[in-house]
User: Fold these one by one.
Assistant:
Number 1:
Amino acid sequence: MRTDSAHHIIPTRVYYTIFGLLIFCTFLTVQISFLDLGPLNAVAALGIAVFKATLVVLFFMHAWYSPRLTWVVVLGSVFWLGILLAMTMTDYVTRVWRTYG
Amino acid sequence: MPDAAPHALPDAAHHTLSQPTQAEVALAHQFDSLEQQRDATTLGMWVFLVTEVLFFGGLFTVYSVYRSSYPEAFAAASHELDILLGTINTVVLITSSLTMALAVHAAQVGQRKALIAFLVVTMLLGAAFLGIKSVEYYHKFVEHHVPGPGFQFEQEYFRHAQLFFSLYFMMTGLHALHMVIGVGIMLWMVAWAWRGTITAEYYSPIEISGLYWHFVDIVWIFLFPLLYLLGRHAH
Amino acid sequence: MSSTVLSPPRHYLNDGYGVKSWLLTRDHKRIALLYLAGVTFFFFVGGAMAVLIRLELATPPGDLVSDETYNKLFTMHGVMMVFFFLIPAIPAVIGNFLVPIMIGAKDLALPKINLLSWYIYMVGGLFTLYALIAGGVDTGWTFYAPFSTASSTTNVIPTALGIFITGFSSILTGLNFIVTIHRMRAPGMTWFRMPLFLWSIYATSLINVLGTPVIAITILLVAAERLFHFGFFNPALGGDPVLFQHLFWFYSHPAVYIMVLPAMGVISELVAAGCRKPVFGYTFVAFASLAIAVVGFLVWGHHMFVAGESVYAALIFSILSFIVAVPSAVKVFNWTATMYQGAVSWETPMLYAYGFIGLFTIGGLTGLFLAAIGIDVHVTDTYFVIAHFHYIMVGGTIMGYLGGLHFWWPKMTGRLYNEGMAKVSAVIIFVGFNLTFFPQFILGYLGMPRRYHAYPPEFQVLNVLSSAGASILGIGYLIPMIYLMWSLRYGRLAGSNPWGAVGLEWTTTSPPPTENFETTPVVTWEAYDYGSTVEGHVA
């Protein structure tokens, strides 16, 4: 992790490589969705999405080359969303689920 | 940023000519240096993106709750979405992120024409995304999948499929609104680039606009599997 | 200090005259005053609602207004007070004015965004006011679904949209403060040399940025459900009303920390200045602010113990609600320890500070009662809850706000207010407040439900006491309006440091120049450095 993204100019081949990876992952996730893997379908789809998003954040958004504070901000936002999702789902997962009519 | 070191003196202190440089014109009065200004505005955009994560996050929460409660209905409803158009749109957006990154690069090396070209291509790709989305919405309307009095679906999953489509329109609609704003921002950046406001020393507006654009791409990277890829293998 | 005080020749108030110089200003100090006008206006609108509520509740039958009108009164009271007064007041008025000065900067990082925040706030507020005038809303400020989405026939959407718009004001102000504190500190102003007020503002800004977007999307969901009959929260369409409550309280619980953290920050400043001592345990108080902000996000389910959330989730939220009280208690202990063997003074700001410490403690302790599920089941939706949160929001936040306003009034205006009248008002407010809200603890415990405009006759005595207290409290709030306005023209000139306090704001003139300092300060002393001479810190 560099600390000076301002003067660090990332070579364009990095962008093209990441682009290639992203397109590949897109086709991969579509192909996997046609297979019946049960609960693993969701895991695979979300896992690939997280990987793609990470690539965009790190390289297109220059986070890899940004100060530590940027990392704290990014991880913090993901963590906070995690709190909202996890603690809300705690309620639903532990209820005796009733469909509402 | 080191805590104890004093900030650099304003650029003007080193300047001997009477006319301000392009960079000095761009320096706002509350900042001591362009570097401080760039750091501050970049941090500001990142913090704004945090708010966007939580904003969309609320919708993802609603989605999670109902997907975990009504998995079959959601799969059946998801199956009705056009995976080809969805995949094309995903590729379009990822490409637009590439062109956006290349636009920032062009700004960093002072290539004004390339900057404008990449910004315009990014805008066109964004417009293409919106166009394809409109086609999809039209299909949904024609197939009676728009929630409301005209909604039609197989009886077994009727109510919960309607919930899925409510979420579909809410989530993709909000995303599309952000795309429209993004295209508007790109237009603004094209104007600035055209006028020569953007230079190799002062390109942070492009970088910040790029951050926003990439974020909107990331939202779609999650929307696509959650909305389109659920029910592919079933039925 | 010299004996003759002169007004500085050029300062931010005379740096440009005319409406345009105010409405198009980028000066954080002028924007703070614009906010002061706005929050004061909305406070009195909310206060007018409160007057009507307490008038109705002076007698058991619902004879002053109809039940529907009463629903609208308490709804608008809550909406106005929460979203348009308590959440913005200290950050947007005192914070806007002081944050750049306290860190030694010329302005906030993003001055134009700051002005935009004010416009957004005013537009949202006026939009919501329109909803009130055009017939009101009857859902309660919590606008629970499915009543708000499917049944209520009142102006839910305009009110919701007004709040949505104003939410962006909170987000942008919070963003601005975070960026400013990270990137604009003067040379030598390390994090641990900052006044504790800034730690509180920083923690508050984190909550603003992380929480407000969730209520924003919740409002959009309510509006969409109302307009398009989507069904996210409607059981008849497959939705869950409790999901609305999860999303609503995910923000609205941290929101109460948005309301109280800045007041706590003010108290740290007042106690240090009033006792001529550094705040005891600076590091603990600083981290306590962050802890309140973080843990405050983990407790929202304690508003839903009886709503239908699972017992297991309720247990987790209950334990966390006990834990969140700890950092607040740490602060109370540390302020008290600061006062110990300090040169305790009795000037008006300090009166508000001491009042805060006592009343916030009562409010906080009763919060623990509510965190215990066994008790909450009995007192939820009664006047016990109302008393609890008014002790914190009025006994806490508003007293912190008034204390801060009085403390920094000389800095902001260059004038001293009438100390005698100010002391009298502070005492009237304290007496009126306790008379209004203490009986409500008893009423709630005895079973009087909230949001009812009629009640059984056996509750009348306590209600009459409460209404009498409210009239005293109202008078207490009106008096400062008079003497503070009066001081603008006729008050004695203040000088740069009328309190003899330590802090960067006291090293510059009263009122400060537009650029805040003649030269950028270089900080070499610790916060609250009352050990060395005060004059050593004057630039």
Number 2:
Amino acid sequence: MNLIESFRIAIRALLANKVRSLLTMLGVIIGVSAVILLVAIGAGVQGEVTSTIEGLGSNVLFVFPGVMDQGGGGFGGGGISRPFTMEDVQYLQLRLDNVDAVVPMAQSSGTAKFRSASVHPTIMGTTEQGRLVTSATLGGGRFYNRSEADAAARVAIIGYTVKERLFPNVADPIGQVITIDGQRFTVIGWLEKQGGSLSGDQDNQISVPIGALQRLTASDRIAIMLVKVTSINDVDLVRAQIKRVLAPRFGDQITVFSQDQTLGIFNALLGTLTVMLAGIAGISLLVGGIGIMNIMLVSVSERTREIGIRKAVGARTYDILSQFVIEAVMLSVTGGVVGILFGALGATALSSLVPTSITPWAVGIAFFFSAGVGVFFGVYPAWKASQLDPIVALRYE
Amino acid sequence: MTTPEAATQGRSVLQVLDVTKTYVLEGVEVHALCGVSLDVREGEMLSIMGPSGSGKSTLMHIVGLLDRPTSGQVIVEGQDVVGMSPNELAAVRNKQIGFVFQSFNLLARTGAQANVELPLVYSGVSGSERARRAREALDSVELGDRLHHTPSQLSGGQQQRVAVARALVTDPAIVLADEPTGNLDSRSGVEVMDLLQKLNASGITVVVVTHDANVARHGQRIVELRDGRIVRDEAVADRLNARDELVQLGMNTAADAASLGARP
């Protein structure tokens, strides 16, 4: 009997037991697709955050008031310190060399309305130099200029989601007047779609001059200053300079992070998330594997009798084994491929909510683990049965 | 129909020489067969009879190469099979022996034709030739119109007829039937015995194992086993003819009449 005949027998046996074949494949499908999906989410979020931070450029320094513990990866630590004000920003800007810009950033949330539509975006406040330290690109209109920033003009650049929600029927939102917490702002620009991230939907944002935000929130606090260094070679120099300049005002209650350090903090955080997701994925894989094992073991008695019948009419050990190996491999590989498809489809479908990125090693591990379990539990009982005398296999209960 | 005398004078297709089989069950030795010798002649229809526990099924399994004897010789078509490897035994079972079991032992969820084709698959017969021979075999057991019915869609009698078709499709030297009527109603049982007698009339050696004296009387010779030994070996004086019995049972339906009338 040749290999083609073995394939025919295996296919015939699989088709004769459709439910069993489907259930076995289901185990592989669930395991493979769950792992692919979960790891894709973990990797996607990490990639998104990384690219956002990297998008700022490696010559940007993040200046926070207070002391942040970088090693622990948390933002909770720190001594007592007052927040920055615009005065601090100007003070620092005047005393730093070798920098392109010192950009203050503050944020709040608010309600933005246009006619009957309303959204609840994050309101970002910055200066005209804010565009130097952001990865977002304008889809239309312009950024606010220096005089608008200085005058705290009521102009707004809206994120993609805000544009879609507030202006579903308006072709060009530029020049339209919206209200933010009751105050009227003129839309002067909108941003291209950026996608979500851990820190929330980056597209659900409105950027206004920082003075306008401070008036909205009736607060002069500034959360962070971003310092863009002219040359990457000067980053360490400027970092020391910032600490020195701010020392008379804040003492040692100042934290300056480079992009690498910020990435390090986020990666530590996201690493935990990825480990958690991988743990869940591992459980899915295990459950899928147990499912496969159960189906295979439950059908041992029927399959042992089948082996007895086949041997009685003249099947050799090789014939039996090749049939069962082919059956198990076909089921596992088909299930694995379907699982990969489902996982990839799911990851694509989810990408509008959460960034996802399909990782080849996760696909590989999930596929080979599930397929391995399928093949082992498909072949091992069959191998044992094929060693029995035909009459013992026939009588097996 | 050949006479018993003629049959016993034929060539030997199967010889069993001083075969013993000892099982160990929970530390106790059970002697299923204690030195059985038997000679099955070509073209003969032999009944092996005995109560349950007499060793008749064990004997059939050894004769059919499904089980190995503890000692003794089994010679099929002149070949001593006791020392053969599992694969050599598989080849002999495939080419020389056809089985009919009490519990049918058909592949579940598999059509009648595919079941009948099974032995041919393992002897390397090509697909189209397999299909042709399987259909022919099913025609000969009056199931030519049930080619793709699965066992669960067939009655017990029909399943046993599929099993008979599977046994004869390889054109074996010998057909072994283990309690072939055991799971059947009396009419289906007689029909199966009729098929076996017809098979025998066409020249195939048939061995029927049964505990039922009436079933045994369909053969030309009865070997009776008791406690693992042969206690009787004699020709049947008043042999039953299954076709006469069917006539006596009455042709209940037009379909029966048609199927009987269609027989050669």
